[in-house]
Write a structure and sequence with these properties.
Chain A: This is Copper transport protein YcnJ. The complex is a heterodimer. Chain A is α+β, with helices and mostly antiparallel strands. Chain A has two domains: 7-271; 285-380, Immunoglobulin-like (Sandwich), CATH 2.60.40. Chain A is 58% helix and 17% strand. Chain A contains eleven helices and eight strands. In chain A, helix 1 (7-33) crosses helix 7 and helix 7 runs antiparallel to helix 8 (169-202). By secondary structure, chain B is of the alpha+beta class. Chain B has one domain (19-141): Immunoglobulin-like. Chain B is built from two helices and eight strands, in the order H-E-E-E-E-H-E-E-E-E. Chain B has helices at residues 2-12, 69-84, and strands spanning 21-25, 31-32, 38-48, 53-58, 93-96, 102-110, 117-126, 132-141. In chain B, strand 5 (93-96) and strand 6 form a beta hairpin. The chains are: A alpha+beta, B alpha+beta. Chain A binds chain B through residues 1, 3-5, 63, 67-68, 70-72, 76, 79-80, 83-86, 128-136, 138-139, 196, 199-201, 203, 274-279, 333, 335-336, 338, and chain B through 11-12, 14-20, 28, 44-46, 48, 50-51, 53, 70-74, 76-77, 80, 86, 101-102, 124, 126-136.
């Protein structure tokens, strides 16, 4: 049976990532990349920090409620928080979020030393309650490093785009240069780790375009590529020219930050989508070519994002469609799940079947042509 | 380099997708001649045992159907839907023997007076990745 997902889960994950990136990104910018940017506008920086805190805190609590709601009984919330590993991690996350907010008040002497372990601890609670949790130590470490690098670069950039307006132009420029300097290495590390995690979760490269998880990941990769292009354009072309002309402005940081919001949204959706998992044990694309009288049946049987498609044409020996075609019986079966229907041409001698498979895995498909019965085994990824 | 390649292959081998059914003892669709004392279900990743629900239920179907696991699975679907919706069934297990908080396998003890017949093992688990997966399988005890 398919596991239960709700669209709301995507929203919760997106809000969680956005909150954490805002909170930690502002923290990184203020402490390590451009403290002069935030100094003249402490109140605004505090508001951005608090906004990130509230988003992450609210998303964590509501996420816990949503999980027990999915299990069918919201009265389980207390048991979930106290008696499960995930619940304990969420409580720990709430504690770390509160500590990070307290740190941002600037009351602590060892702030620069306390901040990194707390930030990494917060990100670890994210990794241990997401897909990485089921992927062993290597998966958790890779996911954590991916997040750490992402927060340092994308979080810092997001925070800079929000704090830019009230800061002196020289301070902005210095912060932007620092982000650009470290951005290359951070991005490379993030891309390598992201690539590794994608390979692990996809199992097979073909799953990148044939499964829902892969297709959503492609959207995320497309947005990341756009951000990268914009960052490179900003750094190597626009920034030197504007500096030479003595112009002061937002450059394209605002647009980069806006696209990063899209990346975080896509990450939320990918995190809420089931990865396809093990390598397929059967083909996901089968070509059909069967002679019939003077002509032949040609077409494809394939699965894409959990849907089984059958496209079939009856053509004469010159390859032309016939005026009409016979009715064909088709059956799909997997461990007791059975679907049968009679296919009739939708146009001349062309047939199409689209069936949403209740379960991923190996499906048996049979097709009764007028003169013979064809049987196939098809892999359906989700 | 070969060592690195082996390491990478090892790492890529850890491919999991939520807490899906991996295998079980007795196996899915099996016909047993000896009365089983327990059912062990293995998942592809650890589940939160205390927030997951598991049960073994008697499947009341004509005796002619006992020999066909595919047919039994079809017949079990309405019962499974009812059970997952929170309705009661004729339960034949006496509870979980697994005490760990999170585990990749769970053990369900069966009643010692288990009668011959088909049984359906149903679950709604909560994986450590926060996703819930429900599923079932059937087995037949026919001495």
């Amino acid at each position: 049976m398919p596991h239960e997902h709700q669209g709301l889960q995507y929203v919760i994950r997106t809000a969680l990532y956005l909150g954490v990136f805002l909170l930690l990104g502002t923290g990184v910018l203020v402490r390590y990349l451009g403290w002069k940017v935030s100094r003249p506008q402490r109140w605004w920086a505090w508001q951005v920090l608090s906004g990130g805190f509230l988003l992450a805190f609210g998303a964590s609590l509501y996420g816990a409620y949503h999980t027990v709601w999915m299990l069918g009984d919201t009265a389980l919330l207390g048991r979930y928080l106290w008696q499960t590993q995930q619940g304990n991690l969420i409580l720990l996350r709430l504690l770390i979020l509160s500590l990070l907010l307290l740190l941002s008040m600037g009351w602590f002497r060892w702030d620069r030393w306390l901040y990194p372990p707390l930030a990494v601890g917060l990100l670890l609670t994210l990794s241990l309650t997401a897909h990485a949790a089921g992927e062993g130590v290597v998966g958790v470490v890779a996911d954590l490093l991916h997040l750490v690098l992402g927060v340092a670069w994308a979080g810092g950039l997001l925070a800079l785009a929000l704090l830019w307006r009230g800061a002196p132009p020289e301070a902005n420029l210095r912060a932007l240069r620092r982000i650009s300097q470290v951005g290359g290495s951070l991005f490379l590390g993030m891309a390598l780790l992201g690539g590794y995690l994608a390979l692990v979760r996809l199992g097979d490269l073909a799953n990148l375009w044939t499964t829902a998880y892969g297709q959503r990941l492609l959207v995320k990769l497309g947005l990341v590529a756009l951000v990268l292009f914009l960052a490179a354009f900003n750094r190597f072309w626009l920034l030197p020219r504007w500096e030479a002309e003595g112009r002061k402005g937002l450059y394209l940081v605002g647009l980069e930050a806006f696209l990063l919001l899209g990346v975080l949204g896509a990450t939320g959706v990918v995190a809420g989508t089931e990865p396809p998992g093990p390598t397929p044990r059967a083909p996901s694309l089968i070509r059909i070519a069967e002679g019939y009288g003077e002509g032949r049946f040609v077409g494809q049987l394939f699965s894409q994002a959990g849907v089984i498609h059958l496209y079939l044409d009856l053509r004469d020996k010159e390859g032309n469609l016939l005026p009409t075609g016979p009715a064909l019986r088709v059956g799909l079966e997997r461990e007791g799940l059975v679907h049968q229907e009679v296919l009739r041409p939708y146009h001349r001698s062309q047939y199409h079947l689209a069936y949403l498979a209740e379960e991923g895995g190996v499906w048996e498909v049979w097709l009764e042509l007028p003169h013979k019965r064809l049987a196939y085994v098809l892999w359906v990824g989700r | 380099m070969p060592r690195f390649a082996l390491f990478l292959l090892f790492c890529l081998g850890i491919v999991l997708a939520h807490a899906e059914y991996e295998r079980s003892v007795p196996a899915a669709n099996s016909i047993l001649s000896k009365r089983p004392g327990s059912v062990v279900v293995y998942f592809t990743q650890p589940v939160e045992v205390r927030l997951s629900a598991f049960g073994v239920y008697a499947l009341e179907v004509p005796r002619e159907a006992w020999g066909s696991p595919v047919r039994l699975r079809q017949m079990a679907q309405p019962l499974v839907r009812r059970l997952l919706a929170g309705n009661a069934g004729r339960r034949v297990d006496v509870g979980l023997a697994t005490t760990a908080r999170t585990s990749r396998s769970v053990v369900l003890r069966l009643r010692p007076d288990l009668e011959p017949g088909p049984y359906v093992v149903v679950w709604r688990n909560l994986g450590v990745d926060g996703h819930s997966v429900s599923g079932f399988f059937v087995f037949v005890y026919r001495p």
